[in-house]
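Protein 1 of 2
SEQ + STRUCT:
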Amino acid sequence: MKVYIVTDLEGVAGVYTWENRDDQSLENHERRCRQRRWMAREVNAAADGFFAAGASEVIVNDGHGAGYTIDLEELDPRVEVFHGIQRPAVFALIEECDVTGCVGAHAKANTPEACLCHTGSDAVRGHWINGISIGEMGAQVVVAGYYDIPFVFCSGDYWACREMKELCPGCVTVPVKRGLSTFSARTWSPKKAQQLIRVGAERALAAADEVKPFKLDPPLVLRREMKKPVYDPEHPPTHARVLDAHTIEVEADDPVTLFAKLHGTPLDRQPRRP
C-alpha cells in the first residue's frame, strides 16, 4: 500500500501567521526554521502511523511555498520527498499511489474563523469546479479521484478538517488547532499534535476501503475569482477565457489537464491513467 501525502504549512500546530520569505531578520529566520521542524515532525508522525497500519511506501509532496519547507534532517528515513520548483505536475507521482491525504491543511478561501485560509494565494476569492467550491485539498481530491485514489486522511486546522469531511465522507481527520480568526488559533502543542496525527494516520489507512474516490463527470469547468480586478478580456491568460475583470474559466475533459492549464505546467508531461 503506497501513501501519497501533500503538506502545507498553514495548518501545522503552532503556525498562526503567513511565512515571510523576504524578511531577513534573525527573528524571522528562527521562526521559519522552527516551523520547518514542526512540519517534519508532523510528517513523521503521519508516516509512522501509516507504516504501522501496513503502508509499504510513503511519498510526501512538500507542497508549501517554494516546495522546500520540510526540514529534511528531521525526516523519517523511510519517507521519500517530492519537492522543488518547475514541477511537471502539481501532484506529480500521485498516480503511483493507492491512497492520499494531507498534513498541515488549511481551509479554503473565505472560510469564516479559519486560520490563514486561502486557495493558492490570498489574492484568490475562490475556485469552483462544475459549481462545487474547492480549496487546495479539493484540487488534490479531484486529481486523486481521476486515478481512482481515495483521500483518506487530513490533519490541520479544524475548519480544514470539517471541509474535507464534507467533501470526502469517511476520511479520518485530525484537528491540531482551531482557527478563531485569520491570524489566531487555539492550538495543541507540537508534541500533542504529533501524537494525535500518528493515531489518526494509522486509523485512516486501516479504514481506507471505506472511502470512495471523488469523481466528477466531464467536461470540467473551473472558475477562478480574484479579489481585485486583474484580468483583461482582450489579453486572456493561456487556456482560459475571461468572464470579467475578476473571473476566468478553464475547461478540460479531465482534472489533470484542467490544473495543468490553470497552473501553466506542460500539457504533454501530465501522467495519464493506466
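Protein 2 of 2
SEQ + STRUCT:
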Amino acid sequence: MHNRLIICNMYPLPENIGSSMRTMNYVRALSTIGQVEIAYTNISEQVNNDEGIFSKKYHLDKEEYPTDTLRRLYYALRGIPYPINIFKGKEKSQIVELINSGYYENVLIRYMHNTIILREVEEKHRRKVLVDVDDIVTASVYETLFYETTSYIKAYKRLLNKILLNKYYEKITRRFRTVFCSESDRALYARKGSSTFVVPNIYENDEMVKQRFGHGHNNGHVLLFVGVLSYHPNVRGLKWFIETIYKRYSATYNGAKLLVVGRAPSDEVKNICSRYAGIELHADADSIIPYYEAAKAIVVPILQGGGTRIKILEAGLTNRPVLSTPMGAYGLDLEEGKDILFFENVEEFMTKYKKLLNREYYNMLSDNMKNIVIRKYSRKSFDNAFYRILRTS
C-alpha cells in the first residue's frame, strides 16, 4: 500500500460544505489505492469520530499575514502575495522532509493559497504533486477578500497584489500539475506547456435521490435560497435578489415567500431578511430536506465567484427547477431552458418564472436537471477523471 497526502484548510469532517465535500471525494478515491494522510490548518469543534479514515494527521501552524505596509512589501518581494499562506513549525518541516524522501506516492494540495510549501519540494518529486485550485481568487471573487474602501492608495495596493497573485498562479501552473473543477476555470490559467486537468465538482447523495419531496408545482410561490450565509458572494447576491427582484415578485404573486436557509448568517443577512414580508431566515438548520419539500423553485442569484455551485447539483436531485444567474451556474454544463433557467435582471426573472406555472414545462425542466446530475455529476465521473490524472504521473 502506498501513502498519499492531502493538504487542505478545514479538516473535511463533518462533510457539510462544498469545500469539505470535494476534499472527501478525493479522500475516497485515494483510499481505494493506498493509505491517506492529511495536513490541515483548522478543525471544526463538531468532529467527534472520523472512523480512522486517515492513517496520520498533521496540524499546520499558519502565520498571520502582516497588516503593516513594510512587512507586506517584504512578503511581496519574496513573491508571496495575499492570501497565500505561510506555514511554520515542526509538522510543516516533517511534511517537506517526507515529500522529499519519496515517502508519498501522491501529494494533493487543496487551494492555491496552500502551495507555498512547494518551494521546498525537490525537482524530482514535483510530478507527484497535484494542485487543486477549486476557487480562483484572482477572478471576480478577489474583491471579496477585502472590506470596501474609498482610499486610492489602498485600491492601488490591492491592484498590485492582484497582479502578483496572478503571476503566482501562473508560476504554479507552469511548474506543477494543476486541477480545476471546470473547463471555464482551466481556460483562465491554462498556458502553453502547462499540465492542467479538470475534475468536476459533483453531488452524489443516495438519500436525496430516494427521498420523496412531493410535487413542487403544488407549493404556491415559495422560492428557496440555500448557502453559507457569511460567504460574501452569497450575501451580496442574496441582497441584490431581495432588493431588485423579490420586491417585484412578492407584489405580483399572492402568498409569495422566500426561504433563506444556511449556516452562520451575517448581520447583513439578518437585517435584509427582516425588512421584507414573506422572507423567512432559517439559520443552521439540522436538515435541508423540509425546505426543499416546501419550495416551488430554487434561486441562485450569485454575481461573483469561481468554482462550481454544488447547491445547484443538490437542488437538481430534489426535482425542483433552478433559476440562476449565469455566474451562479458557472462551470456547470447545463443548457438554458432545458436544464435550468438563467436571469440577470428582474424582467428576465419574472419572464422565466412565469414559464414554471406551466406544469408540463415545470416537470420537463426539473426532470432534466435531476437526470443530468445523476448521469454527469456522479462519483463515478469524479473518480474516472481523477484516476486518469494519476495514471499520467
